[in-house]
Amino acid sequence: MAPDQTTPTDPTTQHPQGTPGESIPHPGLTGDMDLTPDHGEDSYRGHGRLEGKRAVITGGDSGIGRAVAIAFAREGADVLVVHLPEEQDDADETVRLVTEAGRKGVSLPGDVRDEAFCGRVVEQAVSELGGLDVLVNNAAYQMALEGIESLTTEQLLRTFTTNVFATFWMCRAAVPHLAPGSSIINTVSIQADQPSPALLDYAATKAALVNFTKNLAQELGEKGIRVNAVAPGPVWTPLIPATMPAEQVEDFGAQTPLGRAGQPAELAPAYVFLASQESSYVTGESIKVTGGK
Predict the structure, then answer these.
(1) Catalytic residue chosen out of the listed positions 44, 141, 202, 271
(2) Which of 65, 120, 189, 292: disulfide with 206, CB 3.0–4.6 Å?
């Protein structure tokens, strides 16, 4: 039997050290990458921790979103993945992996910058999955800057609308359908408190989401709905070569104490924990998965 996510392994050698200095077109497809990320396709084994749950994952087509979809399905959840229309090929592969796990998988193309679309996401989840128990706000936009003078208003609006406004809209639409025991999980970032100047606008949105997570957790606690976040460090996904200069992509993550970039599969267990009953007394928190950075 191949090693699974619980097999003791040296974290410094568990995944490749060094990433290629490549650049791919935005928004980035998995098939365009020279080094394919590990989403847990061959390693994640479920233990029934999310049996019967219904989940929405925005940005669920690739990267961390795909890894979370695989893990959720193998833990017993049905999954609706939200993605941009141009990411349909990746979304189809994610849905295939969900259905291969014996769960229902639904793909919904659209742009979370559209407030009405965010409402339709929740409606479709309730209609096709029979309800909603877990909302993962994972879709995000970033684009590296040369400095604040290069930051256009168009990019500023796109970053905040995708990362912050859409999360508000998704939560507002979802809450009326969430019963006690449900969970909202927001993807934030190490950038929230260790910002990089090249990601000035992106880092600000992630700091806003940390605050939003803590605040909404206070409001929804009395309803029995938990709100938490996962804060990744440098993780190898299509977003990286699609939004950063090739020279910055080369050896991405090498500056961490573990000496390498994380893989999406290494993020998924944190989302499973926060979606499961095992985290029943955890709300308003951010779990950092950063390789020690």
Answers:
(1) 202
(2) 189
Q: What is the spatial distance between Cα 77 and Cα 193, in angstroms, rounded to a whole number?
A: 32
User: Interior CA angle at 225 toward 222 and 231, to 5°?
Assistant: 125
| Closest among 17, 23, 7, 61 to 39, alpha carbons compared | 61
pLDDT tens, position by position, 81-129: 999 999 999 999 999 999 999 999 999 999 999 999 999 999 999 999 9
> What's the pLDDT tens digit per position in 141-171?
999 999 999 999 999 999 999 999 999 999 9
Query: Which 3-state string (H, E, C) describes 74-129?
Result: HCCCEEEEEECHHHHHHHHHHHHHHHHCCCCEEEEECCCCCHHHHHHHHHHHHHHH
φ and ψ of 35, to 5 deg: -110, 105
Residues in the chain: 293
> Is 44 known to be catalytic?
no
CA distance 278 to 274: 8
